[in-house]
UniProtKB/TrEMBL annotation:
The keyword Kinase does not apply. It comes from the Eukaryota. The keyword Repeat applies. Keywords: Leucine-rich repeat, Repeat. Gene3D superfamilies: Ribonuclease Inhibitor. It comes from Trichinella pseudospiralis. It holds the Pfam family LRR_8. This is Protein flightless-1-like protein. GO terms for cellular component: cytoplasm.
Amino acid sequence: MAGTGVLPFVRGIDLSGNDFSGGLFPKCVREMSVLRWLKLNHTNLDKLPEELSSLKNLEHLQMTHNALSSVHGELSDLPCLRSVVVRNNQIKTSGIPTDIFDMQDLNIIDFNRNALKETPPNLDHATGAIVLNLSHNNLESIPNQLLVHMCDLLYLDLSGNKLTMLPPQIRRLTNLQAYQK
């Protein structure tokens, strides 16, 4: 496929099920300059491939069921990112770059089934978020200020955590259509 010249025109690719352990990630992904969506589920990734940073048009990134403990680095280089789904990994709160929540178009944030002990710093900056899934982590509390500016949320899932109470600001989420606690 690399010799056909089609790589610059690929809009989406599902590389799920491949074994990318040990840094074995296809270098040709860098040539996919208009790539909009990328699925890397069940690929044995333990760190983000550096090739992701060249995907400036990437909008949807899904990396579930891997061994990621951090998503630092390359995510911050994706200015068009609209959804980040990194379920079933080993990501800790310190492994999430705070600047990704300042991205204007980020509206789907899914860190379900990771190792979060507290909400990521600056998560409240994701004011355009419509989906927030932090379920099945080790969260013990939700900061009061978290939900103040996330008034566009349609779906909120905090189930499977160690929460004893929710911030009263949850009442401000007038657009909320689905909520799991």
